[in-house]
Amino acid sequence: MWRDHLFLDDMDVEYIAKEYNYKFEEIKRAKEYLFKNDDLLDAVNVTMWELAKSGKKHPSVTNFISHEIIQSGKMQKEKISFLNTAARDAAWPKLHAETLAEQNLPPASLFHPDVIAQYSLEFGSRYHNYWK
To answer: How big, in percent rounded to 5, are the helix, strand and coil portions of the chain?
Structure first.
């Protein structure tokens, strides 16, 4: 299973932390937040993580990593288990909106244009037009 392979080691965490100038613990927390719960695995997030691991520099990748660090920190601060699907689903809209406001970013800025194109049915016209 892809998730099992993802957690074999932390080489990706080390690389992303160094490449994007974050603490190892912050990236590890974001990774666990994104991928530890099988019920919440999302192909768009997986693809954005792969872009971060690849070293492909783009503002969307930086925005995505920063967003997930902040949002996972908010979840942790509120003591919401990353494995508790119902609690995460209930908290996500508020914490996601708070994180975007804190970053002063629109949602479309979190995703690379190639990812938006690849998963075009997942995104509305604002996303498709954002990076043009």
So the answer is: 75, 0, 25
